[in-house]
Every structure is written in C-alpha cells, then in structure tokens.
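thread: overnight batch results

M.L. [08:02]
morning all. the overnight job finished for the chain we discussed friday. pasting input first so we're all looking at the same thing
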Amino acid sequence: MSERSSVLMRWQKLALIAGTVLMGIKLTAYFLTHSNAILTDAIESIANILAGSFALYSLYIASKPKDFYHPYGHGKIEFISAGVEGGLILFAGASMAAKGLYNLWYPVEIHEVTSGIVLILIGGVSNYLLGIQLKAVGKKHHSLTLMADGEHLLTDAWSSVALLGGLLLLKFTGWVPIDNMVAVLMGCWISWTGYSLIRKSLAGVMDEADTALLQTVSAYLNDARQSDWVDIHNVRLIRFGQKVHIDGHMTLPWYYNLETTHEKITDLETHLAQATGFPTECFFHADPCVPASCSSCIFQSCEFRKSTFEKRILWQPHNLTSNRKHQL
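M.L. [08:03]
and the structure it wrote out:
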C-alpha cells in the first residue's frame, strides 16, 4: 500500500471514530429533548457512519494496484463510495423532512432545550473542524472519497447552525412548530446534498469529461510546446479515483524514424503527467504531418515545408478533443 493510501485510510478511520462519538452525542440530545430537528441531525449521523464504513473499504480497494482483471486499477470504487454516501444522505434527509411535516399536524412535546443546544453546539463545532481537515487532505491527495466525506461533515456543521437557531427560537418563544419547520428545512437541504453527491458519482462512473483538468492540461501544453510538436488532437482524459488516464493523437514530422517518434511521445507523456498533478497513465498514437499542417507548424527548421508559417494554433479543450488534425 502506498504512503498516500495509508494517509487517506488513517484520516478516514479518524472520521469514522469521530462520527460515531458525534452520533452518540446527537442521539443523547434527541432522547433528552424529543426534538424532531435534533433527530434529523442524529439520523444523518447514522448515515455518516454507514457511508464512512463503506468509504474506508473503498479506500482500501482503491489502493490496490491494477491487475489482469482490472487493467485500469481499482480507483473507480471511489465514485461508487460517493454514490452510496449520497444515497444514504438523500434517504435520511427525505425521511426526516417527511417526519417533520407529519409532526406539524401531530406535535410532540419538547423537553430540556438547553441541554440540546449545548450538545448540538459541541457536535457542530467538531463536524466543522474535522470537515475542513478532511476536505483539505482529500484535495491534496486527489481523493473524491475523502473530499465527499469532508463536504458532508461541513454540510452537517452548517445544518447544526440552522438547528441551533431553531432551538434558540423554541427556547425563547415556546412555539413548538418551529422545531418541525426546522426539521423540514434541514431534511430538504440534506436531501439536496445527497443528490449532489450522487450526481458527482454518476459523472465519474460515466467517464464525464473533467473540463477543469483539461483546461489546466491545455494551458500547460501551450507553455511546454516544442517546435516539432506539430499537433495534438483526439485527446480523451478521464479520472479513475486518484489516477488519470489520457490518450490521444500526436502529429509529428512525417520523416521522423520510429526511435525519434517514440522519444517525442514519451516526452509528451512526461509533460502531461506533470500537468495533471495526479498519477497519470498516457497512451498516444503518432500521426505523420500533412501539407495542410505547414501553415500552422512552428517547426521552422523543417526542410520539407510546403507552405510558409502563418499562425500558431493554441491548444484549447475544444480543439484538443477534436478527432481531426488542426489546420488554419
């Protein structure tokens, strides 16, 4: 197991332990107060524990090297993990919004509001601090699983702020429907968070283009461009958990021998790996240049040029991904 995977698993274990403690705090607050809004927060914490357990397992699977049956590695399980977490959050949020609506018509007496406020405050601050750290570590190590967990905890922390506001209003006004109204609003917000995670998960499973990363790569290639890199096109870039796979076509002078062509493609792949900032696997096909390429080719020392240089074509996401040689 790599050092990166070990770091991610350690943080996920910490998140799981902390989540279990926070769930206990929130359930205690609910049994003391009988508040639906607090129960909403507690049910979400149960979803956190279930999702966190699967996330820990997914990080273990994702850390395995590629093999005969998984030639691209095991990184896509991180997308599945985020989807499972999103589904659990969506279900918890919808359930508690429904319960809040039900209790607007059939209210339950609230007790020990002050104790509930103190316990939820402790839980909210803890979630915020841990969520910030998980998100930072996940971003540093390019882990969707850890970033999703951090985002979830931050959402939980902000929902605790809304919950505290509702409990304070309840304490000073004594108007019980406030509790159920807060529960409905929190349930809807939590459901939206779950939907967003599912959407991101499906995008990964469906190999949706990472346009932000593609923009970064195109800018880097324009800066690193060598004069005999006549053209790069038909580029496809996808994420597999912490890894990136890139394939495409590279146009080189038609008279280059196989050894020189191989060196140029290897050089390009090295630059691409530096551009992404991820562990990157590249496969590029070499194309020979054609006379139409001459007007945009910056390789001035070419002895076989058919026309004068007119204009350099900048590589951008829309033309890098196009399946045709670039020409003016």
